[in-house]
Known about the structure:
The chain crosses the membrane at residues 24-46. The protein is mainly alpha-helical. The protein has a domain at 20-53. Helices cover 71% and strands 0% of the residues. Helix 1 packs antiparallel against helix 2 (20-51). The chain starts with a helix and ends in a 12-residue tail after the last helix.
Amino acid sequence: MISQPFAMDLIPLLSGERRTGTYYGVYFSIAGLGVLIGNTATGLFVDLARATALPAFPGSFRS
Length: 63
């Protein structure tokens, strides 16, 4: 969310008004890959916390 406004302004400058759509596509593909990796890691950590009976987040999983 922090990089989005800067990237939206910077991509047209870097593309030089040629193949701007390609630059946007590459940017959003890399961003999507980052989201995929981040969500997968978060899910693994939550599952690991549940398996070891340690809370994944403070105050969670109280019985």
